[in-house]
Design brief:
By secondary structure, the chain is of the alpha+beta class. It is built from 7 helices and 7 strands, in the order ααβαββααββββαα.
Amino acid sequence: MAQDFIGLSSKEKAKLKSRSAYRRNRSAARLENMEAVGSPLKGYVRRRIEEAATIVVSARIFQRQNSWTGPSQSFSPKIIASPDVFRLSGLELVKWDGKHTRIVRTKEGYRLMGLYAAPEGSDWDILMQEYHSLMEWLYQNLALTTALLHHRRGRYATIGVGYAFGGGRKYPGAYVQSSHNSVLLKKALESPVVKQIARYVDHE
């Protein structure tokens, strides 16, 4: 810890110590609360679930697959509209406005997923607009290969960032990007927009 304070002023050291103490206390209080209620979920998530309405669907329970095993999208004879894809796959489309938390379950009572509402207020809508602009900026400036645009999961741009098990790895590893893409992705991850979303996800 002492090495973390090298080169900092007394005021900066005090601020760093205060922040560290706050985070330790918050983590301890959160863990204590989780143990008290017997749930691994954060209090914020539990409140959302308690307030949620339930959507009942007729979908069957499918066994999880480790990877996509269907044909490559690039070899499909035609592009099928999303509603038709759901219908042909035996799935059901759940419409959701994002303003209210919903729990999706089957008629038998199996919970399939939770759709958690976004924070109330206009600030979140503005943040989403800024995030959309950021993603559009990335799309226009990243050097995307054909494999990143047309792949087994569809015809849309995708690029990995950070650590993952992808590519058949047996252990987590970092995605390797070109120097051009690395600069752009680093700039995007350091943007205030992404940081605000990350803080919300970690919020209790």
